[in-house]
Write a structure and sequence with these properties.
Largest sheet: 5 strands, mixed
Strand content: 35-45%
CATH architecture: Alpha-Beta Complex
CATH class: Alpha Beta
Number of strands: 8
Distance between the termini: 21 Å
Shape: globular
Strand order of the largest sheet: 1-6-7-2-5
């Protein structure tokens, strides 16, 4: 059985909303990783899994919405749990994250105007990502 690392600190007695999430690890032809800059920070393309949606379909939908990337999922490469507080929603979340390698098969205009796609090298991505679980999965790439 796989041990899933947990990032963040749980507060005893605090209710958590479980949110299934999926994030893409995507490289361009130069080997740079896709990172999405938002007003709240830097993240891998991805987000919450919608009802009836697989993690693979989630990254394909989210990458198109956030960055205009049309992706083809390849392989799941890791899982982690991230404990986060959303000030916007006044809610604590237990994000059960799946990380998926994907390849770019096309590009369209992004739907989210406050999101910007940036391409960065692996070390820069590790230093800039806002979520610890996302930095963790990228550190794993450095060792493989």
């Amino acid at each position: 059985m796989e041990t899933v690392p947990v990032f963040g600190t749980r507060v005893e007695g605090c209710p958590y909303v479980v949110r299934l999430s999926a994030y893409a690890l995507v490289r361009n032809a130069s080997g740079y990783l896709a990172v999405v800059r938002t007003p709240k920070g830097f993240y891998l393309p991805g987000g919450g899994v919608e009802a009836g949606e697989s993690p693979e379909k989630t990254i394909e939908r989210e990458a198109r919405e956030e960055a205009g990337l049309i992706l083809k999922s390849k392989a799941q490469i890791g899982r982690a749990i991230e404990i986060v507080y959303s000030a916007e929603e006044h809610t604590w979340f237990e994000k059960r994250c799946v990380f998926i390698e994907a390849e770019i098969v096309g590009q369209v205009p992004s739907h989210e105007r406050d999101h910007e796609l940036v391409w960065v090298d692996l070390d820069h991505a590790i230093s800039m990502l806002s979520h610890t679980s996302q930095r963790w999965v990228l550190r794993g790439l450095k060792t493989t």
